[in-house]
Design a protein that fits this description.
Blueprint (H helix, E strand, L loop, with lengths): L2 H19 L4 H4 L10 H18 L11 H15 L7 E4 L2 E4 H22 L8 H18 L11 E5 L4 E7 L2 E4 L8 E4 L2 H8 L9 E4 L1 H5 L1 H4 L4
Parallel strand pairs: 3-6
Antiparallel strand pairs: 1-2, 3-4, 4-5, 6-7
Helix pairs in contact: 1-4, 1-5, 3-4, 3-5, 5-6, 6-7
GO molecular function: metal ion binding
InterPro entries: DinB/YfiT-like (IPR034660), Maleyloyr_isom (IPR017517), MDMPI_metal-binding (IPR024344)
């Protein structure tokens, strides 16, 4: 997928989020989410701010009235349409730092899609991934794990982790105190294999490994969420 395609996925997923969030009463806004300490209202506010920050990163000025989810969603959609077909090497400033557009676009789409899952689950829905949203999340998984791995509990040097599916193909090794892409020969310390949606939900901290095939270091597998705390 191109950066433009990923950004269009993001716009569509933010539209889905807005539809789910429309007309929520105080009871549903007060429900807990799967994110520790966050209620539905907190999640909605986070997504409102995220859309404005991402729109600004794509070059869209902040709207005069951006204090509601609909205005933020419109600003993000305008940013995507005005951007057209961006240069994949263009730098984009995200919360975690500056990355090139070909990395930023799937990360933005993945944030939108994962938060749709968060909201759907909090409201009693299935909260699954599929289609283009799953493809964007799979593309974002490696860069995202590299970043959040720096926030997690340290693992021994030369520890390696692999996630393998049809779309998901991520292998990381801890070297010099950081997780880095790894293409060394031989098996990883622990390998998770299975359906892409379960791999993505594991990687983003929204699911466990129960439906995946795990080989290698079982104790390391149980520490995955502490090594890679989901965003």
């Amino acid at each position: 997928m191109t950066p433009r395609e990923h950004l269009r996925v993001a716009a569509a997923e933010y539209e889905r989020f807005g539809t789910l969030a429309t007309g929520l009463d105080p009871e549903r806004l007060g429900r807990p989410t799967g994110l520790p300490g966050w209620r539905v209202a907190d999640l909605v506010e986070h997504v409102r701010r995220a859309q404005l920050l991402e729109a600004a990163a794509l070059g869209e000025p902040a709207p005069a009235a951006a204090d509601d989810l609909r205005a933020a969603r419109a600003a993000f959609a305008r940013a995507v349409e005005r951007l057209g077909d961006p240069d994949p090497t263009r730098p984009v400033e995200l919360v975690g730092g500056v990355v090139v557009m070909e990395v930023a676009a799937p990360l933005i789409a993945a944030e939108a899609a994962i938060h749709v899952v968060d909201l759907a689950r909090a409201l009693g829905g299935p909260g699954g991934l599929g289609g283009s949203a799953l493809a964007s999340c799979a593309a974002a998984l490696g860069p995202m794990l590299t970043f959040v791995g720096g926030l997690g509990a340290p693992e021994p040097e030369e520890t390696s982790v692999e996630l393998a599916g049809r779309l998901v193909d991520v292998r990381l090794r801890r070297t010099a105190g950081r997780w880095r892409p790894d293409r060394a020969p031989g098996p990883a310390s622990v390998r998770f294999a299975g359906d892409d949606d379960h791999l993505v939900l594991l990687g983003f901290g929204r699911g466990g490994a129960e439906r995946l095939t795990v080989t290698g270091d079982r104790l390391l597998a149980t520490r995955f969420k502490t090594a890679f705390p989901g965003p």
